[in-house]
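Each record in this resource describes a single protein on a pair of labelled lines. The shape at a given residue is found from the number at the same position. The record below illustrates this layout:

***
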Amino acid sequence: MKLLLTACQVPFMHGGADYHIDGVTEALRRAGHQVEQVRFPFKFNPTSSIEQLMAHCEQQDFSEFNGVQIDKVISLQFPAYGVRHPDHRVWVMHQHRAVYELFDQQPNARQLEAFKSKVTDYDKRVLSRASRLFANSANVAARLRTYNGLTALPLYHPPHGAEHFYCSDDWEYIFYPSRLETLKRQSLLIQAAKHISAPVRILLGGTGGQEAQYRAEIEQLGVQDRVHLIGRFSEAEKYTLYARALGVFFGPYDEDYGYITLEAMLSGKPVITCTDSGGPLEFVRDGETGYVRDPDPEQIAEAIDRLYADKKAAAAMGAAGRESYTHHNISWQQVVNSLLADN
């Protein structure tokens, strides 16, 4: 089949979304289909630029191009899923969160009321036209149900390089690889360092807008000997950093999906997450594949101390996580089968 895949692109900002977009494209090609990507340039500000892109996407009829018939369109992102096609499959990675569950946290929320209404109306209108509607996770599906009254089927996909993750003896550190941003809440782990009794180090991987703030917080708390900002790392280093961890912390606020949970499970490592972390809660079972704690530094420290105090139990939770990943049948082949199924 000839397939078009629509998404967005923010120039010079790359991350997990790109792995997702390229991953499904390659999986569809391996399945024997002709696939082209159409990625619309996206600007977060001003909101008028988003409104213009919404209008542009909704005007696009992707049924054919220059006499070439398009069999199906698969769309992944707002507002690219507004394009039109008689057989339009939408797999929602996430919506424009600033007008949904994060709306009350916006500093200018009152000024955004009209924009919020336009986005929610757009989503309900264009997503209702989809021939099949999927969500990146149960958490994303729940948002569609809560805010738009739409039912989407959760469809999980593997992290990039899933086949390369492995498990090895731990080197007594907790690993948290992620962008250094407020929603990722590295601050919880930094503050937890003050309360950890065990001789465990904390490695925070990645870069981001909160790096200077986190460095200052580490100094202010006097935990420089325990908490280390290790910055960027290669793919090969990533696999080793997971493999040698005692456990992995992933405590963002209301995450859509979260590759980190799956990468930790593939590495046979227990995951510590929080009760309000969203996507990770679909995989982390408290006391079985990791620990679920309130977003409280002392509770997080207690969970880390428990991992260190009983490494045999920690290893067993990590192994259970790997088994759970297999049980969920997370694979690109399953994604392709689901996206293209007729019913």
The longest strand covers residues 2-9. The two ends are 17 Å apart (CA to CA). Residues 73 and 88 are 5 Å apart (CA to CA).
